[in-house]
Structure formats: structure tokens, C-alpha cells
Amino acid sequence: MEKLIVAGACSVYDLTGLKKAFEKSGYEVSFVDAPFMADIKIHDFPETEEIVYTARLPENCITVPLTEFWISYCIKNKCGLISRRALEASRSKRFLYDLMKEKNFDYPEIYETFQAAEKALDDGNRIIVKPEGLHSGYGIEVLGSDRRSFLAKYIEQAGNIKNRTLRLMEIENKGVMITEAVEGTEYSADCFFNKGRISIVRIARKIITVINDKPCAAAYILLKETDEEYVKYSDFLEKWTGMLFDREDISFAQFDFIASENGRVVPVDFASRVGGGIADLLIQSGENVYASAVAGEKVFLKEENEKPDQGNLIQLHYLPVVSGYIKNDDYPLFPGVTHIFKRKGDYVISNPSSVGSRIALTVVQYESIHKTENQLIDDLLLGTDYISTEK
Length: 391
Fold this sequence. Notes:
By secondary structure, the chain is α+β, with helices and mostly antiparallel strands. It has eleven helices and 19 strands.
């Protein structure tokens, strides 16, 4: 069997099931992750497969990256079966958007000058200022005409982002982009590409709010394969994935995209890895969605999970709207599977575009929440009742 190294293994769960799925597809796999992940606990799923913690892989190995660190490693060491096109799109949103334009897919309009961005604001449109080469929501600011005076400040900030996380991931901030803010419903999805075969790993609809001009995922709703949205957007995902990878590639693919009321379906972010921050949600589905995509058939965590689904699951994020120290950790959590990240005395930063800013999360049945999205968001935002802004 062909040997693969799955790098970034701490990011997924049920490695035994994933290993069996790869073996069924003709691959012998081993699992590795970076040394700085050794003491980080992402989920509570009991693992039996060994993860080797290392920052160096054997020469000429075939690597499937699951995280940003290992994308950087594959770019630097040329050790993945991933097209240069997909790797470059993982590191440059401009490249991604230009590629989408070239292949006749929809894409966000880029404002090439300060004056063009100002005109868009004057015309009543919202715009986004973001670093060109950073992943996910890092450094993104959204502003409308009422925040026009902040444009120059946000451009300067986006161009100067440097921190420990970026150094660890070996990610370079390549400059600043200003684009249209595509209005609509945002989704997150993972796919798997295996030598021409494309599988959907999962699709989730996001509930987005904007805090301090930063877009924030307040919740993820896991879609079922029978949901109309899932069926509709699977076709787009397969076409985008097929365009980015070459025939002999092996890789996961993560997309963020927005569907507007006027029919636009616009990819806004991509990386050749899996999406992060939703392991709790996926585990509660009872399925190893990664193994299912690799094997081409359903892989359940336990036999009793193989039963009719009762509805959609939602992962709720409790977020700080101010920076300070937690003074009250009796959070107003919805009843469900809970993961608390911050306790009394911990410092929190009101930077909600970062997964690390979450105070807690809960996974529940979506149908059990009898609230509008705005009411739900109000329940998830934690302020001075829980956070002290004084030292």
C-alpha cells in the first residue's frame, strides 16, 4: 500500500476509524503533529492511535496536511501531493479570487485603490479590509459608510499583523486586500480530493455577528445530506475543488462561502486542510465525517449511532464583547454538551474572529432553540456581567 503521513492529527477525532478508511482506500497511514500541539486538548474523544510529535518528516514522504502549520511545511518541503495552485490559493486570497475569475466562478470584487474603496462606501456598500495571506478570520475588519473614517487605520493594521501564532504556523502576511463584503448567508465546508474523486466531508451554516467591526461565527449549524442547502451547495464545492487540484492529488479542502439572496454563491476563503474549531459539533453527530469522506461510505463512531437523524445540531459560541478578566464564570449556557475554555480569573480578549477568543461552547439540537437568530446572538455575547475591565 502507498504510505501517507496525516499531519495535524490532533485536529480530528477517531483516528482508528480514519486509519481504517485510508487502508480501505489503499493507503498505509501514520499520524503526526507539531511539538507545540502535544499539550493542547482539542476534543475529549478517547484516542488509541499514536500521534508522533515532530517538526520534521522523512524526505520524499507524501503528506496530507490538516492544519496551517503543515500547509506551510508542505509548501517549504514539497512533500504533499497537492497542486501548487491549491497551495498558493491557501496562502493568497488574491490568487484565489483571480483563479475563480479566470475559471468563470463568482468571486468578491477587489478594490485596488483607496479611492475605489471610499467610493464603494459612499455608494452605501459595506467593504472588508483583510490581510491577503492570513487564514480564516485573522485580521479581518468589516465597515460601512458610518465607519468610513476608520478605513486608513484598518488598512495600516492589516498590513502590520505579526504575532506568535503566525510565526508558529510559518505564515507570512503578504499585504492588504480591500474587497466587497458579499451580503448573504455564510457557510463553511470541508471536502476530500483523492486522485480525482471528490467527497463532501461536511457543510455547516454559520450565524455571523459583527463585534468591534470584526465578523464572528456565533454558531455553526451542521447540515444533513438531505437538507436542501447541502444538496444545492455540494455541486459548487465539487466544482471549486476539482478546479484547484490536479488529477493525482490527495488533500482535504476547506472553504468559506457566502450565498446571497440574489443567487450569488461566492467562495471567500480556501485552504488545503480541514476546518478547525468544530470537533465537538462533529463528534456529537455520531459519525466520523473525515473517515466517511475518505472511505466513500458512512463510518460511525459506534454501531448505535447508525440510526435515523433527529435533526440538525448547532454549536453555540459564547464570546466576549469586552477585554478583561473573568469575574463570574456562571455562564448562561444552553443545556447540552459543553466545553468551557475560560474560568474565573482568566483573561479574555474581545477579538471574536479568533477561535481562541471563545469563552465556552455548547452543542445542542437546533430545533430545541426557540429563538430568532438575533435573540440567540444576544444570549451568546458576554459583557461586564461576566468580565471585569479593571485590573
